[in-house]
Specification:
This protein is an alpha/beta fold. It has two domains: 10-203, Rossmann fold, CATH 3.40.50.620; 220-339, Rossmann fold (3-Layer(aba) Sandwich). The protein contains nine helices and 17 strands.
Length: 342
Amino acid sequence: MIDVNRKGEVWVFAEQQQGKLSEVSLELLSKGRQLADAVSVQLSAVLPGAAVKELADELAAYGAKKVYLVEDEQLADYQSASYCKVLCRLIEKYQPQIVLYGATAIGRDLAPRIASALKAGLTADCTDLQIGSYKVPGKEQIYEGLLHQIRPAFGGNIIATIVNYDRWPQMATVREGVMPLPQRNGSLSAQVITEKIKISPEDLALKILDSHYQPRKVNLKSSRIIVAGGAGVGSKDNFALIWELANVLGGAPGASRAAVDLGFIDRDHQVGQTGTTVRPALYIAVGISGAVQHCAGMCEAAKIVAINNDPVAPIFKVAHYGIVGDLNKVIPKMVKAIRSKS
């Protein structure tokens, strides 16, 4: 049960592969800093792996005041049981009140295992995190300083606020790109706490013979201009128009989940609740209906232009500018105008 006087730290799981930190872990340090300040505790990072000590300096540069370091050659490759054991031992010893994970393939595998082992609550795929109070219905007691975990629910039709008031730690996974990347400050330092946790053969269910990592083909989060196509583009051949417009604008091609599922483009280009969250200066949505799940990933773009042949498509409600027309006619005209600099 919860101890109302508990003042544990805010932790961020520092996910890394091949000695490189995932960007979402650095993004979480930004939100973690806000949460830690709100409850007057320190922000710390947990860094398991093999030969990863130098990454502690990078975590410090992005705001971590402490880094809990667990180095072991058997942690060189991620495995569920071994990483779960490390995190559980550290949580039991230091008792943080909040633990955050990126909603990556690793984070989505690791966080629920830890929640199950510790009998703690977990909210997945959060889009916002805040500190607030909570009053249990039918009781007088009001809990202060709890983590409000905010995420879309029921297919994106509502925004739910979830509170774990009676279990520690409060845990959440957060989608990539939702939190802004903090500014790096190389002059900052962190206290590094080295822990030794024995990894037994039973903790390594697999023997990894070889690993292959394929980098993403596009970095949508860093793109200032994105031209995204949806199911309305019609075909993979028609998607060449999306690529052409993106190229002449010096931007990146994106897509809705429907376009990806139809095979028009690969998943690295997917924008939305189940894809990448983006904040470009210009977002051009072509043949995208405007489902809540897609809009959740691009609604913070500085300018949104929608091109759709359906005048009542929901995408026009979030667009700053709308063009009703056939994309096969509209896009070639746009490309021609841009190339002629008219």
